[in-house]
Design brief:
By secondary structure, this protein is of the alpha+beta class. It has three domains: 56-75 and 84-138 and 486-736, Glycosidases (TIM Barrel, Alpha-Beta Barrel); 155-314, Jelly Rolls, CATH 2.60.120.260; 319-478, Galactose-binding domain-like (Jelly Rolls), CATH 2.60.120. Helices cover 21% and strands 29% of the residues. The chain has 14 helices and 38 strands. An eight-stranded parallel β-barrel has the order 3-4-5-33-34-35-37-38, surrounded by five helices. Strands 6, 8, 9, 11, 16 and 18 form a six-stranded antiparallel sheet that branches. Strands 19, 22, 23, 25, 30 and 32 form a six-stranded antiparallel sheet that branches. Helix 7 packs parallel to helix 10 and helix 13 (675-695) packs parallel to helix 14. It is flat, with a radius of gyration of 39 Å. It starts with a strand and ends with a helix.
Length: 751
């Protein structure tokens, strides 16, 4: 008799395959049990994982696909048999719930939570705030420019070329005569135009017609127009027979859109002007052509001249932005200011003492000319902005000035301090011994194109001290006004509250433990403050910057405090809130990321209000076949738990799974894993869990979540988590337990 074993969720399914023969003769051979079965039989002796918990308060979690779990099928039963908590892999993340318009759909979340309730399983929330899997379209839309108050007015824009038909430009005109293809029109000889001197367009219908559009005259506009655009059309027209024609809306000539466009002109045998004013029909978006159906009468010649089509363009409201840094001279930022005194080199300026500024309270920039000068530019004061002006670009400039004597100054256009472009740019300011404002508005001359600096020549007078304050250099914008950093922070705080409030309402107080903030830290300390920086568009790859949304870039480090505050305010039940991150067990930097996270937690809590209950360590680890590497990994894991225990916080292994790496560190996929390697992975699981239980005091243990309960499928487009790797405790589909199942159970039991 041959045995086939299938181990599922703690159950052994055994099928007896009986032999059948014509008599009772005994078989003369035996069938050996396959080695793979023999090596795995010991797994039958293991019970469900949660039975090995020695601490009844410890949460043993499983990462699941929420929609699959909510169906309450086979996977649901396996998970419930072996674990006491579930974590949704993606369903409770921002982009899974929030649509492009900001509406939120919690249907999958509520189904998932209700399924867990039915089974008496707790749910761990993952995650409230993260930079990945956000709805970037919606969030970035919240940060778009504000509309400018006021009315910029309108202007009429002409879209017909060669209006008077006096040139040979036919880009706006086409015809179809006698049903032929679309071609350029003919012009009459000079003297036959509407003015009796110039030319006109000539179109002739045939002797018979079937359709009104067998002969057409098209006026093609230089750009398409959307529905609703207000326009005025006019033309001078006559024909050899009185006739009423039709007009249609087309895309390109012959591309019919709508039966009506510019009315139905009544044409006589004398030149007359036809005018029409209206809107592009709703049925004809992207209209670019007026088509006139001329086959309303046979054997008729039409003449067209002085053709005009104008549309009313709404002008954007102009607004002005000051681009001088530290305009009021009250900070020590000298970005916009440079001086060259007494012919010396360029340096940052001196600020005068408080009380000497233009307002009598603050400071000013102080510049002194030398005892004698050769050139008027031997002493200069430069104002530089981060914008290179184009020729013709408008700007405003104003400055408060005084000196210890009356002086008339020169002001030049430079490209960078000392990069002379033009001898004048804002006129010749006159300075007196009293504070006086000097203003200038104008356009950049062609000789000053590329300028970003105004240079004041101060050596117009020897031994003169000048004072400058309230420096404003404005550039003109049209369109929306960018939100200020404060406005963006306020808007995103509202959005964050809206999201957290919705999630707390959807989970109805059942989910009381959360990754409130996920993966806040980068892997580098660029600002040199002794801890790794928060993740930001400034310290990630271009792809990450494009695909992610970094709340901390707008809310600063307070984004963690804000998220915690909003979570507690919106929950109907007391919460346990965790900060969760990866690579806390890193051996390459001596657990540097964890040490940084601990410092950040201390900093966030230093306000005396913020309370972070726990730290989650993800632990997406690999078992290394290089003994030295593996020993280093294990040493750092031990150190990690020691550091975590010292925080006094609740500690959670939040996303535990394990791959396999060869001696060079390259990953080994599931089909290539040997029996010996699988048992090595099993032992590593035992080590991790035993170290957690040994080093984390009982009152600090939240629990352990196995992130990947089954191995990952191997797909060509790498769409799975750790694609193709042997990361599960079960094989794909929960077909059978793996050696890692035993290692996990042994760790829980302390064996």
């Amino acid at each position: 008799m041959k045995h086939t074993f299938n181990i599922v969720g703690g159950l052994l399914l055994t099928a007896a395959l009986a032999t059948s023969c014509v008599d009772d003769t005994k078989l003369l051979f035996t069938v050996e049990k396959p080695a793979s079965v023999a090596n795995s039989e010991y797994l039958l002796e293991y019970d469900a994982l949660k039975t090995y918990l020695t601490d009844p308060n410890l949460k043993l979690g499983a990462g699941v696909t929420a929609a699959d779990y909510a169906q309450q099928g086979f996977m649901y039963r396996v998970i419930n048999d072996n674990f006491n908590e579930v974590v949704a892999g993606n369903a409770m993340k921002y982009s899974s719930v929030v649509g492009d318009d900001g509406t939120m759909n919690f249907e999958t979340v509520t189904s998932f939570v209700n399924a867990a309730k039915d089974a008496g399983m707790s749910v761990y929330g993952h995650t409230l705030v993260w930079h990945a899997q956000q709805n970037n379209k919606y969030l970035n839309g919240l940060l778009k420019e504000k509309a400018v108050e006021g009315d910029g007015g309108t202007e009429w824009v002409q879209l017909v070329n060669n209006n008077d038909c006096e040139s040979d430009d036919v880009s706006s005109y086409f015809v179809t005569e006698l049903g032929a293809s679309v071609v350029a029109p003919r012009f009459t000889p000079a003297g036959e135009g509407a003015d009796g001197v110039g030319r006109a367009i000539l179109v002739t219908t045939g002797a018979t017609h079937v359709n009104n559009w067998d002969t057409q005259f098209f006026v093609k506009l230089s750009e398409p127009l959307p529905s609703g655009t207000h326009f005025k059309f006019s033309m001078k027209v006559k024909a050899t027979n009185p006739v009423t024609i039709e007009s249609q809306a087309h895309g390109n000539p012959g591309g019919y859109l709508h039966w009506s466009m510019a009315g139905s002109p009544n044409i006589t045998t004398e030149w007359a002007e036809y005018t029409y004013e209206g809107n592009i029909p709703a049925e004809a978006p992207n209209t670019q052509t007026i088509a006139f159906n001329l086959a309303m009468a046979d054997n008729t010649t039409y003449y067209f001249d002085d053709i005009s089509f104008e549309y009313e363009k709404q002008l954007a409201v102009a607004w002005w932005e000051n681009i001088v840094v530290n305009s009021d001279c009250e900070s020590d930022d000298r970005t916009s200011y440079t001086v060259a005194e007494a012919g010396g080199g360029q340096t940052g300026p001196r600020f005068s003492a408080p009380g000497t500024g233009a307002d009598g309270v603050g400071r000013a920039i102080e510049v002194k000319s030398g005892a004698s000068h050769v050139n008027t530019w031997d002493t200069q004061f430069f104002v530089t902005v981060n914008h290179e002006f184009e020729a013709g670009e408008n700007f405003n400039f104003s400055i408060m000035m005084k000196a210890d004597k009356d002086v008339a100054l020169e002001a030049q256009a430079h490209k960078g301090p000392g990069g002379y472009l033009h001898w004048t740019i804002i006129g010749g300011p006159s300075v007196t011994t009293e504070w006086k404002e000097y203003k200038f508005s104008g356009a950049v001359p062609g000789e000053a194109a590329g300028m970003n600096t105004i240079a004041f020549n101060l050596a117009m007078s020897d031994n003169t001290t000048y004072y400058f304050d309230d420096v404003v250099w404005e550039i003109e914008h049209t369109g929306g006004v960018p939100q200020t950093p404060e406005e963006k922070a306020d808007t995103l705080t509202w959005a964050l509250n809206n999201w957290i409030e919705g999630m707390m309402f959807a989970t109805d107080g059942y989910v009381t433990a959360w990754d409130v903030v996920n993966e806040p830290l980068s892997g580098a300390d660029k600002d040199g403050d002794g801890k790794y920086d928060l993740q930001s568009v400034t310290n990630v790859s271009a792809d990450d910057a494009k695909n992610n949304f970094y709340w901390q870039d707008y809310l600063g480090e307070n984004y963690v405090r804000t998220a915690i505050k909003l979570a507690r305010e919106n929950s109907t039940a007391p919460l346990k809130l965790f900060v969760n991150d990866y690579n806390l067990e890193s051996d390459w930097d001596d657990n540097g990321k964890l040490k940084s996270l601990i410092k950040w937690v201390e900093q966030w809590e230093s306000d005396g209000v913020t309370k972070i209950d726990g730290i989650g360590t993800q632990m997406h680890v690999s078992y290394h076949l290089n003994p030295a590497t593996q020993a280093s990994k294990e040493q750092s894991i031990t150190k990690m738990f020691e550091l975590l225990a010292a925080t006094g916080k609740l500690i959670k292994i939040s996303e535990l799974d394990m791959g396999l790496a060869d001696a060079d560190g390259s990953k080994i996929l599931t089909p290539a894993v040997t029996e010996e390697q699988a048992r090595g992975m099993s032992a590593f699981y035992t080590f991790i869990i035993k170290e957690y239980l040994r080093l984390i005091p009982a009152n600090q243990r939240y629990g352990i979540t196995q992130w990947a309960t089954t191995d990952s499928p191997d797909t060509a487009n790498d769409t799975n988590w750790r694609d193709g790797e042997p990361i599960g405790l079960w094989t794909i589909g929960y077909d059978s337990r793996k050696h890692t199942y035993a290692g996990f159970a042994d760790g829980l039991a302390g064996n």
